[in-house]
Amino acid sequence: MLQSILKSTGVFMLIIIGFIMILFLPREKELTFLSAFQIEADYPFSFELYVERIEDFTGHILTEKGLGEARTGRPVSDEAGIFVARSLKIVLPAFMVSMLLGTLMGAVQFYRRTKFTGKLQNFLSWMFSSIPDFFLFIAIQYLFILMMQHGLPHFKLYGHENWYSFFLPLISLSLFPFLHMSRFTSAALENEMGEEYVRTAYAKGLGEFKALLHMLWNCWSPIMNQSQLVMLYILSSLPIIEKLAGYNGAGKELLFSISSNDEIKALSLMLPFLFIMFLTIILSQTAKLWLVQKERV
Predict the structure, then answer these.
(1) Residue 212 reports pLDDT greater than 50
(2) 4: part of which helix (H) or strand (E)?
(3) Is the CA virtual torsion 74, 75, 80, 86 positive or negative?
(4) Could you give the C-alpha distances from 180 to 75, 186, 240, in angstroms and in order?
(5) Single pTM value for the model
(6) How far apart are CA 18 and CA 30, in angstroms?
(7) Which among 200, 208, 229, 279 has most CB atoms closer than 10 A?
(8) What does DSSP say about strands 30-35 and 38-42: parallel, antiparallel, or unpaired?
(9) Long-range contacts of 191-197 (CB under 8 A, 24+ apart)
(10) What share of residues in the chain are helix, strand, coil (percent, to 5)?
C-alpha cells in the first residue's frame, strides 16, 4: 500500500511540474501593423524567453513567500479558495451521485435485464450517453425557457448567486459519469455470470437477489477503479459547463485566468483540482485494500 501511495505521489508531483511547464510557455501576442487595413499577429517563442518566465515565477514565489496578491488586491490563495469552494458544491455531489446512484442503477438494470423495463433502461442509457454534456446543458436550459413561457414560475438559469444555481450544472456534469457507472456495473455483473460460484449459488437454490448481492460484492474492485475515471470526467467538463451556466466557480475562472495570462491565479485554481484527483486515487486504493473482499465466495 505504501509503495502504491508513493508511486501515486510521484505521478502527482510530475503532473504538477508538467502543468507548470505548460502554463509558462510564452504565448504573448505580437501585433505588426503592415498597413492601415492589414495587421499581422504572431506568437513568438524562444527558449530564452521560456526560461525567463519560469525564473520570474520562481522569483515571485520566493519574494512573496507564496502566491502573493491577485490583481484585485486580495491574496491569491484566499480568492482561489472562494472559487474552489463554489465549484465543490457541484463536483462533490456529482461524484457521489455518479458513483452511488450509477452503481445502483447498473445493478437494477442487470437484475431486470430480461424484462421490458430493463431493456428500456438499457436503451435510454445508450441514447443519453451519446449526447455531449454541453449540448444536454443547452437543451435543458432551452426546455426551462419554453416551460417558463407557458406558466412555469420564473427563476434565473445563469449565475451563481442563488441557492439553486448549482443544480443545473450538477445535472449536466453528473449525467455521463452516472450512465457510465450504470453501464459498467451492468457489464461487470454480466461477466460474473460465467463464474463457478454463481452457477453453484443458483444450483443450491439461492435466490436471484441474494446471488446478485454476492456478484455485486465481487465486482467492487473494478467498480472502485472507475472512481478515478468518474472524477477525471467531472473535473474535465467543469470549466465548460460553468462557463455555459455563467457559474462563477474555479473552472470558469481558470479559463479566464489562462486566457488573460494570469499564470499565478491559474496555478492557484488548478492545484486544488489536481489534489482532488490525487485524493480520489488514494482513497479508492485504500478502499480497495480494506473494504473489498478479493476472494471469491
Answers:
(1) yes
(2) helix 2-23
(3) negative
(4) 39, 10, 20
(5) 0.82
(6) 26
(7) 229
(8) antiparallel
(9) 192/218, 192/219, 195/296, 196/296, 197/296, 197/297
(10) 75, 5, 25
